[in-house]
Each structure stands twice: as C-alpha cells, then as structure tokens.
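Can't paste images in this forum, so I'm doing it all in text. The chain is below; anyone willing to post the predicted structure tokens underneath?
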Amino acid sequence: PLLEALKDFRPIDATHGELSLLSIYGCFARARGFIGNDSGLMHMAAAAGIPTLGLFGPTDDVTNQPWGPKVAQMRAPERDLRKLQPQAVLERFTHLITNET
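Text version of the structure:
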C-alpha cells in the first residue's frame, strides 16, 4: 500500500536484494528522497544527503534514527509497522521534502 500511495514520486523498490550497494547509492545520489525502515539503506540515504524518512517499528527511533540535515523519523503505532497509515507517511515525507534547506 505504501508504494502505491507514493507512486507519484516514482519510488524504487530496493527491498528484494537485487541491487548492489553502489547501484543503490547511485540511485540515492539522484533521488529526491528516501522512505524506509530502520536499516543500512536508511543510513546510506541520510549519508547521501537526501531527505530521509525512517520508519520505526520495534527498534528504537531515538538511538537508531538517521543522522543528517534532512532527516525525520516516524514511530509505528504499538511498534508495529503494519499499523503505519500510508497517508500519514506520505504527509510526513511531503513535509520533509517541501521544507528542505
């Protein structure tokens, strides 16, 4: 549902392990932003300097949050990522990319 909600942003689904880390970083270098769970890819996106929205379920968003000038995070209700509403994620991401410095 999240990829469908974000289709206007032309998302790249890198969740299947088919892309190398260099290819993913190349995508990040050209991307307008990143939305993803607490993972190495989230941290790579933040390091690439693009707007990065980290989605947190059971992991701690305070200690594992992405770092950088254009980052934000969302904690899932009851720490369950399945309970994140796509519309809420879209609104948070839209706010993040429209308020870039």
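The chain has a mean pLDDT of 89. The beta strands are 34-37, 52-56, 71-75.
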